[in-house]
């Protein structure tokens, strides 16, 4: 068991909200640590490799930009070659082009590219799940699944809200009752995501390589080759089930879900499937959001909650929430 110094801030979650909060605090000189239970950074910005090194995005597929604060960050990413615009809209299954004129951006090497860039200069500890939280003499004590103890003057939680609330369960009066009751209302849509590696590139998914679907089990289909992240001679599709199908079939076997989603995608496959991977996103998008960009309380010890349930149910919302959380924590530490 390892016991450490008292840090200024412990940030739980190396998704885009936790990382942007960390960047703000780090540049202000805070002694912080970001921890994540996963093996890589990014959270729901998730890119995976399949057989023969094919790169596939299986969480968020693209992001949009509306607010100047996020736009400034995206401009830097564009200049550094970390993101590029993909499309302004996609075709529906009847071939109609649906566009709202907004650019959809993607990471040039996959959606984790932005998170990897932000994390580069930050102290991040991966494979580290926080299992228990306590407050001792106004200092946070977080115990990891492996039994390591991390002390911090302030705590930022960026996991999906039900997971953050579950962690806070062991802390007496961690949140005022009114705030806790509001947070308990926040629910998320699940998403069953199937990755399918094909023998040959699919010619059936129209340019630019993404499609919105409705009325069946699928809501989204992307060709990662046409999208430009898996190499154009590689064939790997991302199939997202609709929220309705995902909820109704959450407990179904992987074989059953895989068969149904591949059947729904059959008109666009155009080549034999070599390999599939199913990922169950229990928390994909929040159905409700909190009216502020983050929640901050000073007692029993400084605590902030952030993430897409606060800034808006998208990558941009999560980013804006992380920036707000970083600014609030910087003030709390002063
Ligand atoms: C299938 C899917 C499709 C999506 N499509 C889009 C899209 O096209 N466009 C768009 O803008 N958005 C999309 N989104 C939403 C977008 O990905 C999220 O809004 C955004 O990435 C959330 O960032 P976050 O930092 O708030 O949370 P997360 O990315 O979820 O980060 C939270 C982190 O906390 C970690 N964590 C949780 N509990 C613990 C613990 N106990 N100990 C340590 N670490 C812990 C998790 O591992 C995770 O990395 C999609 C999401 C999914 C799942």
Which ranges are low-confidence, i.e. pLDDT below 50, for 5 or more consecutive residues?
Answer: none
Question: Beta-strand percentage?
Answer: 25-35%
Oligomer: single chain
State the CATH class of the largest domain.
Answer: Alpha Beta
Terminal Cα span: 31 Å
CATH superfamily of the largest domain: FAD/NAD(P)-binding domain
Structural notes for this entry:
By secondary structure, the chain is an alpha/beta fold. The protein has two domains: 3-46 and 115-186 and 290-333, FAD/NAD(P)-binding domain, CATH 3.50.50; 188-287, Polyamine Oxidase, Chain A, domain 2, CATH 3.90.660.10. 29% of the residues lie in helices and 33% in strands. The protein has ten helices and 17 strands. The strands form three sheets. Strands 1, 2, 7, 8, 9, 10, 16 and 17 form an eight-stranded mixed beta sheet that branches. A seven-stranded mixed beta sheet has the order 6-5-12-13-14-11-15. Strand 5 and strand 6 form a beta hairpin. Helix 1 (16-27) runs parallel beside helix 3 and helix 1 packs parallel to helix 10. The longest helix has 19 residues, at 315-333. The protein is globular. The two termini are 31 Å apart. The structure holds flavin-adenine dinucleotide. Flavin-adenine dinucleotide is lined by residues 12-18, 35-38, 43-45, 59-63, 129-130, 158-160, 163, 167, 191, 193, 240, 281, 284-285, 307-308, 313-315, 318.
